[in-house]
Design goal:
Elements: H1 3-23, E1 32-34, E2 40-41, E3 45-52, H2 63-75, E4 80-87, E5 93-95, H3 99-106, H4 115-122, E6 125-129, H5 133-145, H6 153-172, E7 183-184, H7 186-194, E8 198-201, H8 203-209, H9 211-221, E9 230-235, H10 246-258, E10 268-272, H11 277-286, E11 291-292, H12 302-306, E12 311-316, E13 319-327, E14 331-335, H13 336-341, E15 349-354, E16 367-370, H14 375-381
Parallel strand pairs: 3-4, 4-6, 8-16, 9-10, 9-15, 10-14, 11-14, 15-16
Antiparallel strand pairs: 1-2, 1-7, 2-3, 5-6, 12-13
Helix pairs in contact: 1-5, 1-6, 5-6, 6-8, 8-9, 10-11, 10-14
């Protein structure tokens, strides 16, 4: 295996450890920092996390992180300092570090610190050889299953994938100097899960359960567009299968939406990648699917784009029914570029993001995100 594999897995292990520390915290408001002073910290402790799947334990392998912890201890003697590490030949217990063992670990660096500092440091230091990657993961799942809104192990795996993504973005999207953005509390995570207005489907669930189980679980939680509410379907860089390209997917979603529709049906709104917009529109026109694009290729008119369709109700026995007979258009469709020019939507909408980042117009609207499904799988979902 190359170094990239171990670096990525080590990062995932650190995120898992952070999640574990937050969930097992007895104080719901305790602020835990991620990759700030060290890998994980709060007001009481500092943790260095080292994952060495392919390495054996040697003094030199833990020398550098222990020196870093000693230097942090010199600056702040009030906290406990922990080296939380995994080596394939040593795991699952806490080592009692004596002054002789510490000096062996420090090697030629031992004379950089006087005896008083080293002894004081040891009174605040723990060397923990962690569980295996899988055991730590299972421990987090068990904790998630204790939540009163978690009803199964599958839901725990789903919540795990959501929280791991949430923590990962705190690290990736915020430079180390933005301390306040790299902090989290237990309450913050629980509120994030408990809002009930977001449904996010992530690849980490698929990696653990497999593609079929991922799709089955996704289908059980996915909320199809409600026919009498406005929904924006935002397509990003998705994978097109041989049997279903983007244009045929859009057309079939529209057909499904209008199947047995009543007169109050709202046209779906599709946001299409710029390079695909002409192909999709051309296909819909060829299939006699009426669309409203706000004249975006001439001069985009947002007022016209947002205007409701003209509809006719079906007649039965000489009386009007609630069923739809005709409509002036069945879909609103514009490119990503055109959407970016809109500063404010005048429609109350929910969003479905497919292999795309959330848009600036989202605001407080409800949304779902779906990643890593091809067009054929998406068609089965809708």
């Amino acid at each position: 295996m190359d170094g990239g594999y171990y670096a990525i897995k080590g990062f995932e292990y650190q995120i898992d450890k952070t999640l574990s520390e937050v969930l097992f915290s007895s104080n719901d408001e305790s602020v835990i920092g991620i990759e700030q002073i060290q890998d994980v910290n709060n007001g009481d402790y500092v943790i260095q996390v080292k994952y060495k799947e392919a390495a054996k334990l040697t003094p030199s392998a833990i020398r550098k992180p222990i020196i870093q912890l000693i230097n942090e201890f010199i600056l702040d003697k009030s906290r406990n300092y922990i080296l939380y590490c995994y080596f394939f030949d040593t795991n699952g217990y806490t080592e009692n570090v004596s002054i002789d063992l510490l000096e062996t670990i420090l090697g030629k660096e031992k004379d950089k610190f006087d005896g008083t500092v080293k002894n004081s440091f040891l009174s605040k230091f723990n060397l923990c050889f962690s569980e295996t990657f899988q055991n730590q993961f299972q421990s987090v799942l068990r904790k998630l299953q204790e939540l009163n809104f978690c009803n199964s192990k599958d839901e725990a795996i789903y919540f795990y994938s959501v929280l791991v993504d949430y923590l990962r973005k705190k690290v990736v999207n915020n430079p180390p100097d933005q301390v306040s953005s790299r902090q989290v509390t237990k309450n913050e995570l629980l509120n994030y899960l408990n809002k009930g207005r977001k449904v996010t489907f992530l690849s980490s669930y698929k990696e653990y359960r497999g593609e079929q189980e991922y799709f089955k679980f996704l289908k059980s939680r996915f909320k199809k567009p409600i026919k009498n509410q406005n929904t924006i379907i935002f397509f990003g860089d998705l994978v097109e299968s041989d049997s279903c390209n983007l244009q045929s997917l859009v057309h079939q979603i529209v057909k499904n939406h209008y199947h047995r529709a009543t007169h109050d049906v709202k046209p779906l709104i599709f946001i299409i990648p710029d390079e695909k917009i002409i192909e999709v529109k051309s296909y819909l026109i060829k299939e006699n699917c009426l669309l409203n694009d706000g004249y975006e290729t001439i001069l985009f008119n947002q007022k016209y784009f947002e205007s409701p369709p003209i509809i006719n109700k079906k007649m039965s026995g000489g009386k009007l029914t609630s069923s739809l007979s005709k409509t002036s258009f069945e879909a609103r469709i514009i490119s990503n570029l055109t959407l970016d020019k809109i500063t404010e939507l005048n429609l109350n909408v929910s969003w479905i993001f497919i292999d795309s980042e959330k848009h600036k117009l989202l605001c407080d609207s409800t949304y779902q995100t779906i990643n890593n499904l091809n067009t054929e799988q998406l068609l089965k979902l809708f």
